[in-house]
# Entry
Amino acid sequence: MTQLTEKKNSLLIKLTLWALTTVVLLPFLWLIKTAGPNYLKNVSDLFHAQDGIALVWLKNSAVFTLGTLAITVLSSITAGFVMAILDIPFRKTMIVITLVTMLIPITAMAMPLYVLVDQVHLNDTIFGLILASSYYPFGAFLSYLYFTSAMPSDLVGMGRVDGLGDLGLYWHLGIPLSKSLWSIVTFFSFISLWNSYQLPKVLLSDPMHSTLPMGVELLFGNGTAIVGVMMLIPVVGLYLLSQRSIERGIFSGAVKG
# Structure
């Protein structure tokens, strides 16, 4: 009776997973079908249409994503290390503020960020968008949880005995032990930035400064699906490249040896 129940539960789980997979894949299948069989030719035609505006959007998205990604990943992981390992004043308050900030939707932050960027006269520029998008509380909190598990107090104490200061702990212990963390934060940050729409929509008004997600609403018909596939390819490629590191990072704290 127990084996029969286990088989039923296993079958139910498999059917549920297949159903969810089908629901998730349907929009992507529609997107690929709508883009047309001659996708490369359609991309070439799109880049040459309207004085190559789509190529400008692609360049803006690449500059914005890579520039913000460099700042975001470094600052998030460093902040997580500081909150998890170092004994600094108001550490618990910083952790709570990071958690609360992570829960605030970007739509609620758009207008304050617009005012701040406008105050430094960087409104409607890619550099201003990079500065406004560089805070990543989710990455900082994820890094805090990771370092709390990966660097126990005994290991930190041994580093102190060997004469390592705060920077030494980060350079000689924190970075070598967090290679999978860098992949995880980079992946999730890239997805968030590459698909970012709401904040660029608020901060950018000139069509020549638009990013690919903003350009989608300016296109009609087949062009929308083409841009959609263009946005999907880098995300899938990055996941395939960093798949093993992401899996190691996710399951690193699941089993204790």
